[in-house]
Each structure stands twice: as C-alpha cells, then as structure tokens.
Amino acid sequence: MPATLPHVVVIGAGPAGLMAAEAAADGGATVTVYDRMAAPGRKLLLAGRGGLNLTHSENIELLLARYGAAATRLRPAIESFPPEALRNWCESLGQTTFVGSSGRIFPTAFRASPLLRAWIARLKSKGVVFSLRHQWTGWDEAGLLRFVAPGGLVEVRAEATVLALGGASWPRFGSDASWAETMRRNVIEVSPLKPANCGFLVSWSDIFRTRFEGEPLKNIELSFDGRSARGEALVTRTGIEGGGVYALSAQMRDAIAASGEAIVEINLRPDLGLTTLEAEIALRPAKQSLATFLRKSIRLQPVAIGLLHESAGEGPERLSSMNASQLAKLIHAAPLRLIGVAPIERAISTAGGITFTEIDSRFMLVNRPGVFVAGEMIDWEAPTGGYLLQACFATGAAAGAGVVNWLFSSTRMGTPDPRSSQPSLPKSP
Ligand SMILES: Cc1cc2nc3c(=O)[nH]c(=O)nc-3n(C[C@H](O)[C@H](O)[C@H](O)COP(=O)(O)OP(=O)(O)OC[C@H]3O[C@@H](n4cnc5c(N)ncnc54)[C@H](O)[C@@H]3O)c2cc1C
What we know:
Layout: E1 7-11, H1 15-26, E2 30-34, H2 42-48, E3 55-56, H3 60-65, H4 71-80, H5 83-92, E4 97-99, E5 104-107, H6 113-125, E6 129-131, E7 135-139, E8 145-149, E9 152-156, E10 160-163, H7 179-185, E11 190-196, E12 200-201, H8 206-212, E13 216-224, E14 227-235, E15 239-241, H9 243-247, H10 249-259, E16 262-267, H11 274-282, H12 290-296, H13 302-312, H14 324-332, E17 334-338, E18 340-341, E19 349-354, E20 371-373, H15 387-408, H16 410-413
Parallel strand pairs: 1-2, 1-10, 2-6, 10-20
Antiparallel strand pairs: 3-5, 4-5, 7-8, 8-9, 11-19, 12-15, 12-18, 13-14, 13-16, 14-15, 16-17
Helix pairs in contact: 1-15, 4-15, 11-14
C-alpha cells in the first residue's frame, strides 16, 4: 500500500457515481466527487417522485434479458450486485424495501430523499469529499481534469477517474450529455444518444387536443409489432406519453426512424373479450346517443371515446356509421399514428452512449487507462421497472471495484495488495 492514498475523482453524483465513490472509498482510496449541480443526486430525487422503483424481483435471467444486446456486457456487474444486494444495501442505509404487486421493488418510504440523505452522510463519514458546482469540460494536454467552477477554471490531478455523467434527459436536473462531445474529441466512440422510455408525437385534431390534453387513458393495452403492454397513457399537447407507451417505446422509436411513422393499436377495454363486447354493443337502445352508451354501458372514459373518433375520422368510416362488430373491433384496436418521437429532454432515459468496444471488463476505457465509466452514459437501454437504476447501481459498483483493482494491483504499484484479487463492492452490514 503506498504511503499516501491514491486520489480517485468521481465525476457525476448520481446513483452510478455515488456507488463508484463508495466502492473506491471502501477499497482504500481518497475520493472526491464532482458534480455540476449545487446538490448531489438531483435525478435520483426526481425518480423518487414516482416512488423510486429501485429494481425488480424477477429471476435474474429474465431481468438480464431486459437489457437486450447489452446484457452480455452488463451480466458480470449485475450478477455481482444483483437486486438482493441492492436491497441489502438499502437496508444498510436504514431504508427497508418492498416488492410491489407487479414485482417491482421500492423503498418503503416510497421516495428517494431519506435514502440519498443517509447515503451522502455515510459517504462523508468514509472521507468522501464533495465538490459541487463544478462542470467537467475534459482533459488538458497533460491529462489533468478541467472543471469550470464558480471561482473560474480548476484543474485536478487524479490517479483514477470515474465518469458517471448520466444521459441526456431532463438536463435541468444535471445530466446534459455535454460529455458526448468531449468523448468524441478524445476519439472515444459514442453511439448516437436517443430518447428511451419516451413520449411520441401525434397530430391530434384541435378539438381533441383542446378537450383532452392532460387526460390519462387508464387500463389500456397498447400493441405494436407483435408486442403488447398494459398500462396508462397520458394525452399531451403534442402526443402521448406514460407507462404503457414507454414499454413499447424502443420499438416504436426505431420504426419511426426507419419509416417516419409507427401505428400503435390501443385496446380501450382489454378486460372484455371481443365477442362479449360486440354482444353488448348490439344491445344499444335505439334512442340512446352513442356517446352516452359508450360511457355508461361500455364504461369508456370520455377521452377514450374521443380517441375512437380520432381513429375513425369523419369520413364514411366515422364512428356513428359503424355496426356493432366494427365498433367492437375499433375499441379493441384503435389505431393511432405516431409521427415523431418527443424530445429527449422529456424522456425517462437515454439510449446510446459510450460503446462497449471502448470499455474493458473493469469498466475502464480501453484507450484511456485509469478512466472508468458507469451508469446511463454507457450504450445500453432498458424499459422502466427498476432496470435503469439496477444497471446504474451495478455498473457504478463495478467501476468502483475496477478502480480499486487497477490502483492496487501488483503490476501497477509494485507491491501486491490483498484487495487487488478481490474487487471490493459496497459493504453490506
Ligand atoms: C422522471 C424520471 C423518473 C425516473 N424513475 C425511475 C425509476 O423509478 N426507476 C429507475 O430505475 N429509473 C428511473 N429513472 C431513471 C434514473 O433516474 C436514471 O437512469 C439514473 O438516475 C441514471 O443514473 P446515472 O448515475 O447514470 O446518471 P444521473 O443520475 O443522471 O447523474 C449524472 C450526474 O452527472 C452530473 N453531470 C453531468 N454532466 C456533468 C459535467 N459535465 N460535469 C459535472 N457533472 C456532470 C449531473 O449533474 C448528474 O448529477 C427515472 C428518470 C426520470 C427522468
């Protein structure tokens, strides 16, 4: 072990960066965490507004499959820090967790602030120093890290660095993806950043938009390209967003990129079989208006009825001219034309990022020894359901362990250190 502890710089105080900081501090390094924001974990707190879905309770193989092509490269990190370890780690911070009815795992407090507060306090007790309002802009010719801080330019020497700068969504909470340009300048490949778990653009009629903007379509099932998802969709001024939409968003986004549009089918009464629905519609009293009948007897929300009108249009195929069979089919599969992807600034997460070809098994940049990467800035994507945070925590832990391994390995320091053969992960109590 060297006389002075090696200085590790972590840039990005989100879940990935903080986890890397903890692993590096536990492994014997002195750690400084830099962030451009005035407080750490801003996006984690934002995620906490929805209850903070930390991870998922499904079997590890199913969970890994959620990461698609990136699963192979994420597997070692997630197997080293699986959902069970994440839950234990939460408990070690005094935050119990529970499995929700859908198998998703949440902190019992159902928000992020108690967890984040306890975590920051523990990191400080381990000697981790926070330098906030420091925007990283790259390296100088000598390899020093450059920051723009309130007092001007700051240059920092680090023996190892972890970049955990997040994606491109919700930039006002910190992650603005300005790092992508820095990476490209340094010949580090970044695949294009794209919205993931995002909303879509729809050319609503003025009447529908005025009446239903902000209304949720509840208990629906969306289908696209052979995949279906139950959930909710919110009508926005420019289109549609929400859990049910996010679940199919990667496929719909790619279809729009390829052909300029995607037609998603919306089942407005997924719990009612088509034959039953058709039989119920056939019983419509002649004197009752269609709108009243659909609302009262078929129990469709006004926004759902509006959507049927949008799908059917005002031509000869309009809603009022349909027979029971046509109407039942439309209620079960109302086609909605998506004409674009909502801006990445409003997406839940980001696809694309530093490609895995640039990263070794320790999460170190192949062409920049001593610089590690973690979290959403790496080229992987996953649906909502806790998979985003799970991968951020796990890659943060792996990058922190990688730093420790690299700093203290016998080949670098001359003297072997027992920790070098056993990368340290954040300690459970
Ligand atoms: C509304 C919303 C709800 C969500 N809910 C969930 C959920 O319930 N479950 C789930 O799994 N995921 C959820 N997510 C996604 C999850 O929050 C992110 O995937 C996760 O925070 C990414 O972690 P990260 O550490 O990689 O990056 P971030 O959390 O984005 O942290 C990156 C940090 O780097 C800093 N930074 C960036 N650039 C610089 C720079 N140049 N210099 C200095 N600092 C910089 C930023 O300020 C930021 O603090 C949600 C996201 C949103 C937007």
